[in-house]
Amino acid sequence: MRAGLIAGALLLAGTPAMAALSPAERAMTQNVEAGYEPAIGLLETLVNQNSGSMNFAGVKAVADMLRPQFEALGFTVTWQPMDAAKRAGHLIAVHKGRAGTTKMLLIGHLDTVFEPDSPFQTFERTGDMARGPGVADDKGGVVTMLLALKAMQAAGTLKNANIEVVLTGDEEDAGEPISIARAT
User: Fold this and answer.
1) What average pLDDT does this structure show over 13-36?
2) Residue 50 maps to which CATH number?
3) Digit-coded pLDDT (tens) for 77-121
């Protein structure tokens, strides 16, 4: 689990390659390391909220937990309800940086395949290993995304970045019709 949350640059810590990192890269590396335990805490909170695709309130609750995380980084966050597709909805977070800079799209999802009646419901941690619904797919991925964005902010590289984050609420069980569920 730890390897999934700690950027590859951290593996170079204390090696000659670490000295080759730019000041911004060193700042990001240090921020990722410092943010590890808080990231695990957020992951535990998200995992312990059931968000099976058909648990609309649970999917929305996960989105509501993530909203302030993105807003604290300067993202404008919206919720796109998907009532017409018979699903909860999608969280969209947009960071407007400097005009003309590269645009980045980060994609993930809020839902899991584990509905409220599944016996697999809670976060469990043993050392650097974790288990639970969404730990690897995709709540862990969303937490990793946030950890990277926080590292960018700490290094000063986020302020000019143009980034759109799309977290769907129906990746595990797509809403119908697809033309509505995947409309832009």
Assistant:
1) 79
2) 3.40.630.10
3) 999 999 999 999 999 999 999 998 889 999 999 999 999 999 999
Q: Rounded mean pLDDT of 129-134?
A: 96
User: Distances in Å between the alpha carbon of 115 and those of 51, 59, 66, 111, 134?
Assistant: 7, 11, 20, 9, 12
N-terminal to C-terminal alpha carbon distance within the chain: 33
Range of the domain at 33: 2-181
Q: What is the pTM of this model?
A: 0.87
What is each CA distance from 38 to 47, 84, 86, 150, 173, in whole angstroms? 14, 36, 34, 12, 30
Question: Tokens 């937990």 map to which residue?
Answer: 65
| Number of domains, the chain | 1
Check: CB of residue 69 under 8 Å from CB of residue 88. Answer: no
How far apart, in whole angstroms, are the C-alpha atoms of residue 44 and residue 36? Answer: 12
